[in-house]
Every structure is written in structure tokens, then in C-alpha cells.
Design brief:
GROEL, domain 2, binds magnesium ion, elongated, 18% strand, alpha+beta, GroEL, binds adenosine-5'-diphosphate
Length: 545
């Protein structure tokens, strides 16, 4: 007696729990909500989203990862999809919408299979097999690209810009982007690496976007502290100082009592001498330029100007670090310790007016390759979206140069992979075959979403694409969303780095498999519990403003 059917409670009161198919269903619908949120922004005819944060600030963007970073996602499974976008963004810099759509579609397909009693572990292993095969197919269909092929690299940059507002000035921006990336690319044993930290942007409103300028060097948003300082310095010897050109005020608020005027004079003289000494110290190292991270006392400014030294104060820490890296100088914490060998060099430093502001251009650098894009545009929102688009563009050029491999877009690669995956699935057989076929269909969501966003019939488009891919007729056949026709994407110059697809397929698979294998969600008290199936709350897991 006693045991009966009474449940044994092992969880704390208030803990919520979702099990089995309920858990899977809830997780998957939350994740799909995320992919549905970005679907309509895919491709050159995708729509922009206006995001308004709790402070009322507005962002207008088409960038998948920006959209997902800004919306406040609560559901744990939905968060995993946001992670997919973030990973894509850090690893490749483009293809974020694609990766999230793929993950959402893999999950949607898995739900149908779970419903027909295919076990999630079988689906997971089928998806893993499909991913491995897809990676191999992708490698096989990739075409080579060399760093010297400017035209092709510009096409790659252009494809990334197609879906952005700046696509009207695509030629112009592609040129800038390719020049920028090639300038900072480093070669080692025939392999290239590009450190994107060596590309910086400076944004200034007031001019039109095609006045955006590539500067081979650094732009520091500073002017000399004193009007008598030089505005053009050739063969600059640069002191980088992280210490104030000021006399340290005593730590404690001390009152200095001065009773007689000679005492005051002595005191001021002492201060003047100390500042003069600091400037002499800099002068004797041969420096003709000073970038100071801290303040510069008026008197010190005067002495520096008299010595013909350019000096800027309160330079940002990040700018100081870039200056150190690009000029080969060392940042010094004590002015007295500055030595000639700590100085950086630049062939030319120039102060130029940009939109009424003086800015300092540090160019002709020998120590390191670094470039700056001075982005111009009408408003702050425009500048931000141009910057996001340029970051996408130079990211794809970077990975194309690093990998030396590209594929074609417009859904062409996805359809080719889907077709070859179906051949492969037949050879695997069993229940996993169903999952591999489902994976193939999920790949086709790329061309169908591109078609939907162009107002075309996705089924018609897909049928035509499959037809053209069949029997190896044209692996580059993809959708031209502007004509609605299936065309050769190489001919249309719609090319993308191989790494976009590689990473997107990989992380979409990982996320889908991970979410799929969860059959029990145990949430501590106070944690938001995954919302119920659709029909209940309108957007499960996505906080609404
Ligand atoms: P993501 O965030 O995934 O990069 P995008 O909105 O940038 O999303 O859209 C990328 C998709 O648009 C890719 O599938 C790419 O091949 C496709 N695409 C871009 N330009 C064209 C074009 N001119 N014709 C056809 N497809 C294009
Ligand atoms: Mg893109």
C-alpha cells in the first residue's frame, strides 16, 4: 500500500515542464517565428525592416543579423536561431538571413516527420549525413577566384550589396571595397589572410554617398589643439602619449597659502618650467607630431606650437592603438620616458576640413597596411546602413580572397545541392533517406523565398530551376528576381564566396539538430516558459512592444 499512482515530486514548486512532442512542437514553432521574421528581407527584392527600440531609436535595415540582434527574443529555442545568425556574421559577415531561413526550414520539415513518427534521433542523424554530403557537393561545384581578378572580386562585393539601399552605386562602392581589402591583405606561402581590423570607417553626414572616399591610412577625428600648429607634416615622427601634458594636481584638495607675490611667481614659474621640460623632452626625440590620449595644458600647447609640433589631445584609446599598429610607434605612459625609438612614422599627415570639421589624415604608412573609408551620406540613418552594407561587402571579398573559392547565387547552388542530395539519399536508404530528402527540400527554400519576395510563383520557379539543373545542364541556373526568369548566374555576375554556403548549411544543421533532440524543457520558476502553439499567442517567444 502507499505507492499507488501518486506522482513523486522531485522538482521545486513553480518549475514548469514541457515534455515529448509538446516540447518539440513549442521549440520548433518559436524557432520558426524567428526565421519567418527575416524571410521577407531575403534577396535583392527583399523588403527592409524598421526597428524601433525601447528608447524610440529607429533602425532601417535589411540585414538579417541586425534585425535579430535588435528584437528582444525570449524563447530559448528562438535564441538558438539568433545565435546561428550571429555565428554567420562573425565567421563570414554575410548570409545571415540565409542561415536562419535554412535552420527554420529544417525544423519545419522535421516537425512533419515527427508527426509521422520518425524518431528525432533518426532525423538528426539523417540531417548530419545530409550536411556532410552537402559540404562535399558545395566544394565540388565551387569555382576558383584569384586575388588578381578585380572584376570578379567586384562582382562578389556587388552581390552582397544587391539587397541593400546602396545597390544603385554598386560599381563605385565595389571598387572602394575591393581596393580596401586588397590593400590590407597579407600573403604567406601563397595563402592570403585579411585582418578586417585594419579597415576602419569614419562617418560624416552632409555630402552625398558617392563622395565616400577611400583613404590609404588612418583618419583621426581630431584637429591640432593650437591654431599656430602645422597642418601639413611630411615625414612625420609621431609620439603616442597616454599621459597628460599637465601638472598633476595634488591628490587631496590641498589649499596652497600664498602670502607674498614672489611666492606666487615662483609657483607659476615652477609650473611653467615643468611644462617646458615636458615639451623639450618630446622635441629632443625628434618628434614633430604628438597624439595625446589625455589633456594638454594651454601653456604646453603654446610651447608645442612654438616648436612647430602638431599636437592633438584626448585621442580615443582605439585610435591610439590603431596609430601604434599602423605607424610602428609605442604608446608611452610617462613623457619623461619617451625615446626616439618609440616614435612612429608616416609619410604624410594632413589636416583637412570635412563638413566644417577639421580631421587629421595619417597616410603614406610604411609600418602596416591600414585603410579608412570616409563614409558620406545625407543622414545618420543612411550612414549607418551604408556602413553595414560595406561591412557585408568587404567581409565577402575577404573570405573569397582567403578561400579562393566562389559559388553562384540566386538559389542556383542550393538547387544543385538539393538535386545531388536526392541522388545520394537513395543510396543511403532506410528512414534516414526521408530526412535527407527533407534536407534537400529545405535547401530549396532559398530559391523559393527569393521568388516569393519578388512576387513570383515559387513552385513555377523551382520547377524551371530543377529542369535546368537536371542532367548537369547548368549548375549556375538561378533566379533573376528582376526578370522572373531562370538564368545563368555567372553571366549575371551573381557570385558569392563559398564560405557563405559552407557556414550557413553547417550552423543551420547544428541548430536544427540541437533543437530537435530536446524533448524536455524544464524551466526554473520565474523564467519565461516557452509559449504554447500558434493560435494561442500570436508570436511565441518574441517579446512585443
Ligand atoms: P543574407 O542576409 O542571407 O545575405 P540577402 O538579403 O543579402 O540575405 O540576400 C542574399 C540572397 O540574395 C542570396 O541567395 C543571393 O544569391 C541572392 N541575390 C543577391 N543578388 C541577386 C541577384 N542579382 N539575382 C539573384 N539573386 C541574388
Ligand atoms: Mg547578404
Amino acid at each position: 500500500m502507499g505507492m499507488g499512482n501518486a506522482p513523486i515530486v522531485i522538482l521545486k514548486e513553480g518549475t514548469k515542464r514541457d515534455k515529448g512532442k509538446d516540447a518539440q512542437f513549442n521549440n520548433i514553432s518559436a524557432a520558426r517565428t524567428i526565421s519567418d521574421a527575416v524571410r521577407s528581407s531575403l534577396g535583392p527584392r527583399g523588403m527592409d525592416k524598421m526597428l524601433v527600440d525601447s528608447m524610440g531609436d529607429v533602425i532601417i535595415t535589411n540585414d538579417g543579423v541586425t534585425i535579430l540582434k535588435e528584437i528582444d527574443v525570449q524563447h530559448p529555442a528562438a535564441k538558438m536561431l539568433v545565435e546561428v545568425a550571429k555565428t554567420q556574421d562573425t565567421e563570414v559577415g554575410d548570409g545571415t538571413t540565409t542561415s536562419v531561413i535554412l535552420a527554420g526550414e529544417l525544423l519545419k520539415k522535421s516537425l512533419d516527420m515527427v508527426d509521422s513518427n520518425v524518431h528525432p534521433t533518426v532525423i538528426a542523424s539523417g540531417y548530419r549525413l545530409a550536411n556532410a554530403k552537402a559540404q562535399q557537393i558545395l566544394e565540388d561545384i565551387a569555382e576558383p577566384v584569384s586575388i588578381d581578378n578585380d572584376a570578379l572580386l567586384m562582382d562578389i562585393a556587388g552581390t552582397a550589396m544587391n539587397s541593400k539601399q546602396i545597390n544603385n552605386s554598386k560599381e563605385f562602392f565595389s571598387r572602394l571595397v575591393v581596393d580596401a581589402v586588397k590593400t590590407v591583405a597579407k600573403e604567406e606561402n601563397g595563402k592570403y589572410t585579411v585582418d578586417l581590423n585594419n579597415i576602419q570607417t569614419v562617418k560624416k553626414t552632409g555630402a552625398s554617398m558617392d563622395e565616400t572616399e577611400l583613404v590609404k591610412g588612418l583618419i583621426i577625428d581630431k584637429e591640432p589643439v593650437h591654431s599656430a600648429m602645422p597642418k601639413v607634416i611630411k615625414d612625420a615622427k609621431i609620439a603616442l602619449i597616454d599621459a597628460p601634458f599637465e601638472i598633476k594636481k595634488t591628490e587631496i584638495d590641498a589649499k596652497i597659502e600664498i602670502n607674498d607675490p614672489t611666492q606666487l611667481n615662483a609657483f607659476l614659474e615652477e609650473e611653467e618650467n615643468m611644462l617646458r621640460k615636458m615639451v623639450e623632452n618630446v622635441k629632443k626625440t625628434g618628434a614633430n607630431v604628438v597624439f595625446c590620449q589625455k589633456g594638454i595644458d594651454d601653456l604646453a600647447q603654446h610651447f608645442l606650437a612654438k616648436e612647430g609640433i602638431y599636437a592633438a589631445r584626448r585621442v580615443k584609446k582605439s585610435d591610439m592603438e590603431k596609430l601604434a599598429a599602423s605607424t610602428g610607434g609605442n604608446i608611452i605612459n610617462k613623457i619623461a620616458e619617451l625615446e626616439a625609438e618609440d616614435l612612429g612614422t608616416a609619410g604624410l599627415i594632413e589636416v583637412k576640413k570635412v563638413q566644417g570639421n577639421d580631421m587629421t589624415f595619417v597616410t603614406n604608412l610604411k609600418a602596416a597596411k591600414s585603410v579608412s573609408l570616409l563614409i558620406r551620406g545625407g543622414t545618420g540613418h543612411v550612414l549607418d546602413e551604408i556602413e553595414r552594407s560595406l561591412i557585408d561587402a568587404w567581409s565577402v571579398v575577404r573570405v573569397a580572397i582567403e578561400d579562393g573559392k566562389i559559388v553562384t547565387g540566386g538559389g542556383s547552388t542550393a538547387v544543385e545541392i538539393a538535386m545531388q542530395l536526392r541522388d545520394y539519399s537513395a543510396s543511403v536508404g532506410g528512414r534516414e533517406q526521408i530526412a535527407i530528402d527533407a534536407f534537400a527540400s529545405a535547401m530549396e527554400s532559398i530559391p523559393t523565398t527569393l521568388a516569393e519576395n519578388a512576387g513570383l510563383d515559387p513552385i513555377d520557379v523551382l520547377i524551371e530551376m530543377r529542369k535546368q539543373h537536371k542532367a548537369g545542364k547548368n549548375k549556375f541556373a538561378g533566379l533573376n528576381p528582376f526578370t522572373g526568369k531562370v538564368e545563368d548566374m555567372f553571366g549575371l555576375k551573381v557570385v558569392e564566396p563559398y564560405r557563405i554556403g559552407k557556414q550557413a548549411i553547417n550552423s543551420a544543421t547544428d541548430a536544427a539538430v540541437m533543437i530537435l533532440r530536446i524533448d524536455d524543457v524544464i524551466a526554473a520558476r520565474g523564467m519565461p516558459m516557452p509559449a504554447g502553439p500558434p493560435g494561442g499567442t500570436p508570436m511565441p517567444g518574441v517579446a512585443e512592444e
